[in-house]
Every structure is written in structure tokens, then in C-alpha cells.
Amino acid sequence: MAAARTYADFVPSHDLVEDAAKQTLVVNLPGFKKEHLRVQIDNYGRLRVSGERQLEGGQWSRFRKEFQVPEGCDAGGIRARFEKDGVLHVIMPRLTPLQDDPTAAADHEAEAARHAAAAEEKKRHEEMEEEDARRRRAGHEDDYASDEGEGAHRQAASAGGQAYGFARDRSRSGMVRALLLAVAVALVGAAGLYARYRWMDPSAETAPADGALSDY
């Protein structure tokens, strides 16, 4: 008589992946092999996945999961595929593939439009900043040229003022020299007239020795 088996129940993790054509039940069964598994569908539209395998020491691991077949599924087209990495895929095709959701398409288009508008706004902002920078550079160059022109004007005015002052000083010095020359000429003329007067005046003869003045 064979010894009774001792089982350790195992609860596998699972996930449901959907697309327009099918729904796929993904069950993670590490350590199991294809011959350890059974996939069945009962008359009530329930999908049953079960399996058992022997562990060390004569103990067995087993599991049993039931899933409701989704509405719109082609029950006759359900297929199971077991991968070597211990993952079971139960593929359940749709009777009618889903059409693209117009709402989702509209949302996608709106999102794309928002991204395009944001990119355009960023580009316009960068162009404005570049234009402002160009204007600031042009303004600095104009200010520099204006400062240079003003400096040259000030230098010219200063030079003109110095030249005018120099000419004025020269004119003043010439006037002084002319005045001194006129004074000298006047003095010389006065001395000449005096000498001439002395030569022509008979009364300018020497006085009597006794110093007495004669009456006329």
C-alpha cells in the first residue's frame, strides 16, 4: 500500500494583459514543468489552472486557480503556452477586436498639440531673448561711440580754448609792446624838442657869473 502524499499548497502570482485582439492570463509557476499542469474550461465559463509537483523528502507542492473567462472572449480559441522560465500564458482571443478609442486618440492628439505649442513658445521666447541681447549690444556700441564723440568734442573745445587763450595772450603782449614802443617814441620826441628849444632860445645862454638877473 502506497504512502499517502503530503501536500504544501502553493498560491501563484498572476496578471492579466490586454490588447485590441486578445487578453492574456500570465501565471508565475517557478519550479513547475509543462507535464505538471492542467488548463481546463468548464461549462460555466470558468477557466481552471492547476498543477502539482514533488518536492524533496516525498512532499508535494500543488496549486489551483480559477478565473472567469472575460466577456467577448472566443472560448473555442483559448490556447495555453508554458515558457521555460516557469511562466504560463493563457491566451484568450476576442470575438471582435477592439477598435481604436476615439477619445484616447483625441487625448493623444491634444497632448501632441500641447507639446508642439510649448516647443513653439520656448523657441519664440529664446528668439526674443536673443533679440534683446542683440539690441543691448548695439546700444552699448552706440553709447561708446557717443562717448568717444563727446570726448573728442571736449578735447577739441579745450584745444580751441587753449589756442584762443594763447592768441589772446599774444595779442595782449603785442599791445603792451606797442604801448611801450609808443611811450619810448614819445619820450624820444620830447627830448628832441627840448634839445631843439634849447638850441634856438637865446635866453638859454649862460647867466652872469654873479648870479644876478638883469631887468628888461
From TrEMBL:
<feature type="transmembrane region" description="Helical">
    <location>
        <begin position="178"/>
        <end position="197"/>
    </location>
</feature>
<protein>
    <recommendedName>
        <fullName>SHSP domain-containing protein</fullName>
    </recommendedName>
</protein>
<feature type="compositionally biased region" description="Basic and acidic residues">
    <location>
        <begin position="106"/>
        <end position="127"/>
    </location>
</feature>
<dbReference type="Pfam" id="PF00011">
    <property type="entry name" value="HSP20"/>
</dbReference>
<keyword id="KW-1133">Transmembrane helix</keyword>
<dbReference type="InterPro" id="IPR002068">
    <property type="entry name" value="A-crystallin/Hsp20_dom"/>
</dbReference>
<keyword id="KW-0611">Plant defense</keyword>
<keyword id="KW-1003">Cell membrane</keyword>
<dbReference type="GO" id="GO:0034605">
    <property type="term" value="P:cellular response to heat"/>
</dbReference>
<keyword id="KW-0812">Transmembrane</keyword>
<dbReference type="GO" id="GO:0006952">
    <property type="term" value="P:defense response"/>
</dbReference>
<feature type="region of interest" description="Disordered">
    <location>
        <begin position="98"/>
        <end position="159"/>
    </location>
</feature>
<comment type="similarity">
    <text>Belongs to the small heat shock protein (HSP20) family.</text>
</comment>
<dbReference type="InterPro" id="IPR008978">
    <property type="entry name" value="HSP20-like_chaperone"/>
</dbReference>
<keyword id="KW-0472">Membrane</keyword>
<dbReference type="GO" id="GO:0005886">
    <property type="term" value="C:plasma membrane"/>
</dbReference>
<feature type="domain" description="SHSP">
    <location>
        <begin position="5"/>
        <end position="109"/>
    </location>
</feature>
